[in-house]
């Protein structure tokens, strides 16, 4: 440990046989770890023999280095004077003069916030946040579906009072908004997920912590008031042990009130902006020839093998064999927290979920921000589908939505249709990218004001008084699935197949 | 009073503790007035210690200065020679050579008029007139809804005669058009509301005077012929006394035939063009942190606190606690004039209004020019909704519409669907901006000719003969609200809640 | 007559009191004629004292000068040497090098033809042909309605034979196309209407001669084969005598098989492209203040007063008092030719027309090329409306359509829906503008080939076998008028009002 | 034969009377062949007296020269030194630096592939592949119809296994994709149809060999594994003998499992991009005056006469007199292979086809890539139409679709609606143009990965489990033909007319 390493020494070790990297000024031998890296071997080998701190830092929670590596892997400090002078690669530079960027208080809406964040963030972060599947059709639909719904303002009612408070699984929130589990917040700003938590605290909103957060749950929760409401997202790992260990840790954190089991991305969608950025940054290694596997891929999908996109790194290790019958009982053994299932996109699955109450207490209608299957329906479609085929679901469990929220009117429309809470992922991340904690606070400030204005113009004082009579969703209703309900078949399916 | 002040002296007094301003060459100590300024303290403090005439003049009726300030506040004349040489701020300059602007008689339609006005007016005036809520969706819908309705021209009928005359609440008009209550006309042109009145007189149209006119009602009516038809818009003030005093004044003016009680903007919508202009012109004072209020804003909404937009200044003082049960009886005590309710956007509210006849004799279906709730329905939606759910309303009270009128065909389509009169706000203001009285006259000249051509091509001689058989509104009808009528519930609601 | 005039002499006479003009090298005193000029006084006065040949020639049939003026008005020849050197005004110059223009045989479709014509014609001619009412919505709809109809090609049928011949009112045509009565062909090319006739002869198509043709009927028919089919359009003149004299002349021309009574433009629509061109070329005379007439214009509409557009000149003198009850009997007295009513836009009027068979033998569903009422329905709408409400009309009289034809598929779709013939105005005029006779022939060559290809791909050999089973018009059907049929009311209306 | 010819000698023979061309360094006297050239005389005469190798080679299968010409036509070798120095015509040059073109592994989707191919191919090849009929409406619809269908992803199902294998007429394929019979592959890349076959082999896909392939069937099949599945497309020739000879040859090739009888282009559609390219390259010969034929073209359509487009050359010789009654029995005499009918676009024809089972074992719903009748319905329309009117067809015969496939989601949607296999023409050709065999492989690699991701996100393991419950096609269903089914009439029609 007493030895100090030079950059030249490190740079000899750049293969799978002997792979060293520099992190935070120390030299590590990660040769043994390379094959089991959740993000795939390739991404490490690209950085072998070099200082990997800049790439490593924003996407790994502090402390995970020590957790993952045996002590002997830490070889010792680097002699910093031996580092070559570096030029920042172009994609990582700030793209514009800070001066030319709109100040936060001049940002009037989510588009302004996104524009500022796009200017301030690295291209890699932008590509990861912005990207969605294929041709971005679901991403686009997520927002336009709200525009297609008209409001029905009422008049001549006293609107001096307006109260946006509500509850989420019985926990009081000042505004029925939650941050969808969005990964890698430190990619956008060093304040990271903890910064989002701070802003949520200011506005009394709920935050769902991503399984792939760039900070640990403990770090994110640090300093939050006792009544702040958090959920924790679980991506079940192929190696169930890892998930079980995480659950033990989560069960200890009393501010975490529920587990969100994400189901809508058992494999990642094809996010081309993210992939292109990965290709640009990545090396010229040949990509996998997937066709050599023949027609039937009987092994689990292996996103590790895809090119160096953020998403592909993140999905490595995620289990694809979750089922109603096996996963919920397993989960019951490892946590008493209520379960919220995320990513339901049909009335059939919503109905199934409602049969699993009370273990399951909520569902999030979500197409994963348009990032999973392109042309998957927006959450509002699924919500109207539920109203049409099995409205009783809305009584049995809480139904939340996310995706495409740009305006307070969007939030209010979702609530009118029966959503108990409304989630946003990109808005929070863009807010963070635009100005750290203050940026996320600006996001909430704008949306809260817009929600209040909308409620007042609908002549509604309390969230619970919003209802379908306040909107005209006819232009959307005519596009909703119109096939057989299939609910009887579902019971049979449950018995037969699960 | 004998004393003459220098600019340097005045410029010492630029705080809430001692606030002087120069207006029309005189120096005023407005310290005591600052906290009670209807437009908010901030907007005055921004101009403290300076010559505020240019900002003050176009948005305040002459005489209101004397009404509002105690005599001792007028300190005395300014020594004009001490004024610093000023450069006109860029936003206030005329943006183009007058020569390059299309002459009025070459303007063939409302878009031409708007284009000319946009070039001639200050950016502040343009931003105030042009702006609408959020993403301008309702503003856009207001017009496109007319394009989606097809005409059904009839042929082989004698069309040598064509008569556009009609009545508005029993008062004869030569054309069934009214100027919607549009504030701050002098922002666009010194002819102001009085200029609009002059043009209305030429064409026999009706004018509704804004509560926030930049001239007094008496000034606006001056010189108008005895049979010219006016209405007066009431924004009920939180301080009811102020409204009652205004009503006393209005009751005296016999040309004012009705009171328009505006209900569609109890809080202003979010008009970003206007807000951005306010931010550009305004100072760098930090904006309000509204979130410090917590989730429930139990006090009346306080638009004063918003940044220096025209709208925010204007809405200060407006009451948010109007109700069917309390406001109409109060109003009955203070005026015998018939009441027209403005801003109804649902068949439910139209139905309710019809129950209040004969005190209420008319309603204006309006989404406030798209300036209140974005994605609120265009007036034509509400009109078709009334035809569908409670057509008897059209027999009991007059139903007027406004918003989005660009063509004579638009006017005729609204009349075919049962509107008794059709209002325009921006057209009049843009006409004024494009050429004062002559500009507004050009607006009417164009529209009257278009209305006559349309009537002739429909083979209809008189306004009252226009009917739904003359149009095909099917493309719009399929988007109309299709939920439960809720009219029975309404009676209960009236008993229970009001 | 012996005297020769100098330009200086002529230029002294430029007022209504003494108005001389030079035409074709001769000097005329038109003082007495000015007030009775069908195109209005203004347009002559603008050219008073000058050589008006260039403006006069392309819009007046040869010979009409002698017809209209007393012999003494012709003062004598001009001394050509006294003419000032003239620079061609910019709008009248050819806009591009002839070399850069696509040759006719490279033009593959109507858009190519229009593009070439636009480059070759004067701006005035382009503006007159191109223009349509208001915002060009009906003009645009005229074409897009065809795109929205899908074909239903059939296969495995012998398609070696394909026969486009048909009949029009019993007269054989080689292709069921007619040239809609389009005015002022010589504006676009000196070949004029006679050139169109020549091209129609080559392809066996029908031509309807415009009442406002720039050549006389006799000139147009000259040299045409005995079996060529012509119709003649009648715009009934306020001065009925003039129309009666024309009918006497027409009755003598045996190739003219029917009279088309145009009903869809009793007043001209507002054609802004044409009007703008008129304003640019016209003088700075103040335009009419129409509002001085008050609300009721009880006199006939006076388009003469409008600015110097081609349309306004052309509509002067047209009667607005035509009716089912009075005009058809009058017409019966003056011609035995079958009558075709042009410009029907509702099933009601189509139904009424069918009651007037056998005097009325056909109707042309037309919105006047989108030039009359903007947002009037495309002919295809009216055709489907007839199929829905009163399909018997299709058995009693021939139903033709025009407007928006761009492709052979458009023609075939109209025929499938029951149209007996399909008309085109602009295509013929653009063809003429693009290359005189050869240009119009190219138009027919392209369309005939497209029609044949479409018929073959539908597996249909003969025009009469085309039917609704060959198309899918569902996307259009859902926009068709859906109100009460009103056919019973029509009988009453006929009795009561006519 | 011993004689060597000079370029000057050859260039004397450039007329129909004596026509020599140089091909692959030899001089041929093709005078006798000119009138019977399937692609028309004109196209040869344009190259008479010159070296035609560059034009000839990519569109003729090797060996066909010897097949078509008598031995004495081959005059002898050219003295290469006498050839003039040539400059490559501009349209034929590679249009961009190869360096600036995206490498294949960076191509993420079909649009990338098309963009690369567009840069690499000759303009002539691009124009031929890219072009579609008229205004490209059917071509555009072919793709957008897929976007309008939403997916219905299911969750909480084990998706570790995913099997894309299926069968085509009982033959196993690893992926239910086929290459539509696309002509002239060597225009795009020298690897030609054989290259496509190689890529199909890698991925276990099916290939339908075009009747107009630029390589012989034997060449294309060379080296393919015994279980690779091929079909062969038959364009029946007017000279039936030629087709019969081809069938003899095809019957011998055991890897060819079925005959695809193409019915959707008995005449070619009007492909303007292709035609324009033909006009640019072609000479200035006057085009045919088709109107001289009169209204009835009782002879077979003669596409030979059209300008020098690739399509026009290719369609020469194709029979237009195929019928259900005569062609299928004739075919039965010449092959025992199952027949697949290509180009059905109505439920009526699909129903008819099903009556001809078991000779007919499949149909391909196709509008010929939008290249035949513009505004013909996309295959998905016809598929839904079949589901609506005669779903039993799907049980009796296999129904395949092609046209507009851009994404794996498109493929999956077609399968969900009941398609047994999905074809692509342009994708394969663009892949070839982008990189030969490797380019086509990249096309399959991308689509296979997308299909697997989509299946996993729908929670479907096997192709046969995909069904209508996995999609929401409501937005498309409302546009489907809604007229009378006409199936009873069809039986009558069969009896009466066939």
From TrEMBL, chains A, B, C, D:
Which Enzyme Commission numbers does its entry carry? 1.1.2.3
Its required cofactor(s), as named, are: FMN; heme b
Which residues are in the Cytochrome b5 heme-binding domain? 2-79
Say yes or no: keyword tRNA-binding present. Answer: no
The FMN hydroxy acid dehydrogenase domain covers: 102-476
Any transmembrane segments, and where?
Answer: none
Query: What sort of enzyme, by top EC class, is this?
Result: oxidoreductase
* Entry-linked Gene3D superfamilies: Aldolase class I, Cytochrome b5-like heme/steroid binding domain
- Bias class Basic and acidic residues marks the residues at 269-279
Q: Which GO terms describe its molecular function?
A: heme binding; L-lactate dehydrogenase (cytochrome) activity; metal ion binding
Q: Which PROSITE patterns match?
A: CYTOCHROME_B5_1, CYTOCHROME_B5_2, FMN_HYDROXY_ACID_DH_2
**Residue ranges of the region described as Disordered:** 78-97, 269-309
| Reaction equations catalysed | (S)-lactate + 2 Fe(III)-[cytochrome c] = 2 Fe(II)-[cytochrome c] + pyruvate + 2 H(+)
Q: What top-level branch of life does the organism fall under?
A: Eukaryota
Polar residues bias: start-end ranges: 281-294
- InterPro entries assigned: Aldolase_TIM, Cyt_B5-like_heme/steroid-bd, Cyt_B5-like_heme/steroid_sf, Cyt_B5_heme-BS, FMN-dep_DH, FMN_HAD, L-MDH/L-LDH_FMN-bd
Keyword set for this entry? Flavoprotein, FMN, Heme, Iron, Metal-binding, Mitochondrion, Oxidoreductase, Transit peptide, Transport
Pfam families recorded: Cyt-b5, FMN_dh
Protein name per Swiss-Prot or TrEMBL: L-lactate dehydrogenase (cytochrome)
């Amino acid at each position: 440990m007493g030895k100090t390493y030079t950059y030249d020494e490190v740079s000899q070790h750049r293969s799978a046989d002997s792979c060293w990297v520099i992190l935070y000024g120390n030299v590590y031998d990660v040769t043994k770890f390379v094959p089991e890296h959740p993000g795939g071997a390739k991404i490490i080998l690209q950085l072998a023999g070099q200082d990997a701190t800049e790439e490593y830092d924003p996407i790994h929670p502090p402390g995970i280095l020590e957790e993952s590596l045996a002590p002997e892997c830490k070889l010792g400090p680097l002699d910093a004077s031996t580092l070559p002078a570096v030029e920042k690669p172009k994609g990582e530079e700030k793209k514009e003069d800070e001066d030319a960027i709109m100040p936060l208080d001049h940002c009037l809406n989510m588009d302004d916030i996104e524009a500022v964040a796009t200017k301030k963030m690295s291209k890699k972060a932008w590509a990861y946040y912005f990207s969605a599947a294929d041709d971005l059709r679901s991403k686009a639909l997520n927002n336009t579906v709200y525009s297609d719904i008209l409001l029905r303002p009422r008049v001549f009612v006293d609107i001096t009072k307006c109260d946006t408070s509500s509850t989420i699984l019985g926990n009081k929130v000042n505004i029925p908004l939650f941050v969808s589990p969005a990964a890698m917040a430190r990619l956008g700003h060093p304040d990271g997920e903890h910064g989002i938590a701070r802003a949520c605290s200011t506005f009394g909103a709920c935050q769902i912590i991503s399984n792939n957060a760039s900070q640990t749950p403990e770090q994110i929760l640090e300093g939050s008031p006792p009544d702040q409401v958090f959920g924790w997202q679980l991506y079940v790992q192929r190696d169930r042990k890892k998930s079980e260990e995480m659950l033990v840790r989560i069960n200890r954190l009393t501010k975490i009130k529920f587990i969100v089991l994400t189901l809508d991305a058992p494999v990642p969608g094809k996010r081309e902006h993210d992939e292109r950025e990965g290709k640009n940054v990545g090396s010229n290694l040949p990509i996998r020839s997937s066709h050599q596997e023949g027609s039937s891929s009987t092994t689990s999908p292996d996103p590790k093998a895809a090119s160096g996109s953020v998403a592909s790194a993140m999905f490595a290790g995620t289990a694809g064999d979750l089922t109603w019958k096996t996963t919920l009982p397993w989960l019951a053994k490892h946590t008493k927290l209520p379960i919220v299932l995320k990513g339901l996109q049909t009335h059939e699955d919503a109905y199934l979920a409602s049969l699993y109450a009370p273990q399951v207490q909520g569902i999030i209608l979500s197409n994963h921000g348009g990032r999973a299957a392109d042309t998957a329906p927006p959450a509002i479609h699924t919500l109207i589908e539920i109203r049409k085929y099995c409205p009783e679901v809305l009584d049995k469990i809480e139904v939340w939505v996310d995706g495409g929220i740009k305006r307070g009117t969007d939030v209010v429309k979702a609530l009118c249709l029966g959503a108990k809470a409304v989630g946003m992922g990109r808005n929070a991340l863009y807010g963070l990218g635009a100005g750290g904690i203050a940026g996320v606070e600006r996001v909430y400030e704008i949306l809260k004001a817009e929600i209040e204005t909308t409620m007042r113009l609908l002549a509604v004082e309390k969230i619970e008084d919003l209802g379908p009579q306040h909107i005209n969703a006819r232009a959307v209703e005519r596009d909703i699935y119109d096939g057989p309900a299939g609910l009887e078949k579902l019971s049979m399916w449950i018995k037969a197949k699960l």
